[in-house]
């Protein structure tokens, strides 16, 4: 047995875009235990429930994270709508699906760039982020924002997207898909990239289930679980096939995310083709009374939006269970037994969003 | 209009002393713990354990506990419950006998202990403050 020592990792580290700290207990160069700590940028958004009414909270919840901002707002609105028995118009359901899948495309492209950066492939990093910019341009065109969109409201959407703009998006995504396919070939077939990703950071299906892993992290280990199958928003009317890989290593997780980009583009095109006309919102009267836990599939996995209303305009409780928070336990599990030099790659492969975690 | 996605969600209250038994049953039945979190009901804590019942149905188990009550930890049954329990302890001040291994009772590196306070405490503080002012 080698000598044990503790290496602090983070909260500031070149591979971490956001602060998380790990005390890595190592024996020689092998990690035997990882003790995580968070809270460096905790904002206490959930504690604003007694200061902001349930309509204003949409804007607070959207600001949980700059990457999956849209989905946070959507999840919260859908939870309140279910408590209040509000049925949103069909066009709103389809618009939500388009924007949600656009969020998934840009989030996965962002992650691919960070992954390339982590293993030192700078050209691939720039290429991923260059393509991501196109999605952000479409967000800006349709919502007016590139990061926080503020188009969700209880009962539907605040903003419509003209049909000709949606048709143009469909064409743009077809062009974007071609370019992403070229880039994906490098991620999936390049010798150097494969050497860095294959067989690294293995999480077995049993471990994933035992530790409650979520999203592409779990699907890369063969766990068939994707909330888009439940049929919220417009998903029941679209052809959707879950992307699952079996190997459970960093390569499998990368492959799942790349396949999900193409799946998301397909869903966007389908939703645009089937986009119904009509209203984008319905009037909502009264205050929420009761509780509901809305679940939806964010780019990083299952997000849970629990709300409890008391019949007044101030909710009793809003709780956001973000996928990164749930993935902390399995991440710590995968770190055990890995080499110190592989730790950044392991952490990055769960696509951690500390902003979401520090809600 | 199409049918709204609205799978069944049930809520049930459980006494703190029966929690472990209930959670063990869930585990034996292969149910997944979705999340666990704390909130307040006036002077009491409320802990909510959300379980995936299959087919995307949910059951929420509510445990209402006095602030002095030590709630048993479920992280021996569901190992990934530990971060949730740590969060409830560190942000809300709930007393849960979380095992020391894993997160060392310090998942959150924050300057203040249990910063999430009940609106009831706010009211109580302001009433005390008013009384002090009246006394002066």
Task: Provide structural commentary.
The complex is a heterodimer of chains A (359) and B (136). With 359 residues, chain A is of the alpha+beta class. Helix content of chain A is 46%, strand content 14%. Chain A has one domain: Cytochrome-c3 Hydrogenase, chain B (Orthogonal Bundle). In chain A, strand 7 (301-310) and strand 8 (317-321) form a beta hairpin. Chain A is globular. The mean pLDDT of chain A is 90. With 136 residues, chain B is α+β, with helices and mostly antiparallel strands. Chain B contains three helices and four strands; from the N terminus they run E-H-E-E-E-H-H. Chain B has helices at residues 19-28, 82-92, 119-135, and strands at residues 9-13, 32-41, 44-54, 57-65. Chain B has a four-stranded mixed β-sheet with strand order 1-4-3-2. Chain B starts with 8 loop residues before the first strand and ends with a helix. The A-B interface holds A 21, 35-40, 42, 44, 46-47, 50, 82, 87, 89-90, 93, 210-212, 227, 229-233, 236-237, 291-293, 295, 302, 304, 306, 308, 316-317, 319, 321, 325-326, 328-330, 332 and B 1-7, 9, 11, 32-35, 37, 39, 48, 50, 56, 58, 60, 78-80, 82-83, 102-104, 106-110, 115-116, 119, 122.
Q: What topology emerges from the helices and strands here?
A:
The complex is a heterodimer of chains A (about 350) and B (about 140).
Chain A lengths: L3 E6 L11 E7 L2 E8 L19 H6 L6 H15 L6 H29 L3 H22 L8 E2 L2 E2 L5 H27 L1 H7 L7 H7 L3 H5 L30 H24 L15 E10 L2 E10 L6 E5 L1 H13 L7 H7 L4 H4 L2
Antiparallel strand pairs in A: 1-2, 2-3, 4-5, 6-7, 7-8
Chain B lengths: L8 E5 L5 H10 L3 E10 L2 E11 L2 E9 L16 H11 L26 H17 L1
Parallel strand pairs in B: 1-4
Antiparallel strand pairs in B: 2-3, 3-4
């Amino acid at each position: 047995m080698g000598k044990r020592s503790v290496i602090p990792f983070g909260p500031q580290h070149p591979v971490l875009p956001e602060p998380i700290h790990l005390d890595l207990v190592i024996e020689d160069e092998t990690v035997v235990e990882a003790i995580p700590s968070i809270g460096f940028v905790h904002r206490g958004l959930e504690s604003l429930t007694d200061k902001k009414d349930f309509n204003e909270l949409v804007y607070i919840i959207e600001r949980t994270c700059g990457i999956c901002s849209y989905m946070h707002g959507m999840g919260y609105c859908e939870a309140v709508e279910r408590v209040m028995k509000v049925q949103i118009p069909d066009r709103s359901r389809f618009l939500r699906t388009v924007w949600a899948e656009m969020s998934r495309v840009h989030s996965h492209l962002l992650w691919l760039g960070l992954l390339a950066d982590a293993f030192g492939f700078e050209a691939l990093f720039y290429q991923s982020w260059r393509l991501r910019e196109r999605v952000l341009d479409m967000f800006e065109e349709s919502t007016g924002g590139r990061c926080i969109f503020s188009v969700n409201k209880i009962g539907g959407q605040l903003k419509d997207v003209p049909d000709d703009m949606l048709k143009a998006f469909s064409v743009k995504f077809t062009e974007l898909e071609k370019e992403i396919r070229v880039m994906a070939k490098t991620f999936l077939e390049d010798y150097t990239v494969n050497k860095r990703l294959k067989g690294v950071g293995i999480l077995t299906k049993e471990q994933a289930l035992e530790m409650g892993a979520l999203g592409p992290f779990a699907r890369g280990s063969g766990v068939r679980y994707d909330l888009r199958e439940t049929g919220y928003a417009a998903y029941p009317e679209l052809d959707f096939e879950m992307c699952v890989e079996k190997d459970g290593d960093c390569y499998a997780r990368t492959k799942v995310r790349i396949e999900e980009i193409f799946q998301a583009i397909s869903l966007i095109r389908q939703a645009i083709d089937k986009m119904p006309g009509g209203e984008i919102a319905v009037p909502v009267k009264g205050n929420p009374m009761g509780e509901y836990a809305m679940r939806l599939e964010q780019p990083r996995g299952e997000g849970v939006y629990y709300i409890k209303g008391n019949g007044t305009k101030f909710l009793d409780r809003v709780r956001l269970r973000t996928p990164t928070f749930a993935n902390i336990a399995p991440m710590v599990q995968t770190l055990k037994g890995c080499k110190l030099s592989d730790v950044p790659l392991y952490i990055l492969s769960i696509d951690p969003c500390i902003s979401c975690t520090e809600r | 209009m199409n049918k709204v996605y609205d799978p069944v969600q049930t809520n049930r209250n459980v006494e703190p002393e029966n929690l472990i038994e209930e959670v063990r049953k869930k585990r034996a039945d292969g149910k997944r713990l979705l999340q666990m979190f704390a909130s307040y009901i006036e002077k009491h804590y409320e802990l909510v354990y959300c379980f995936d019942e299959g087919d995307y149905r949910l059951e929420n188990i509510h445990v209402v506990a006095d602030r002095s009550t030590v709630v048993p930890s479920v992280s021996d049954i569901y190992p990934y419950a530990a971060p949730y329990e740590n969060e409830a302890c560190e942000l809300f001040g709930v007393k849960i006998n979380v095992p020391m291994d894993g997160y060392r009772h310090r998942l959150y590196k924050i300057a203040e202990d249990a910063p999430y306070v009940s609106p009831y405490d706010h009211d109580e503080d302001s009433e005390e403050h008013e009384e002090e002012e009246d006394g002066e």
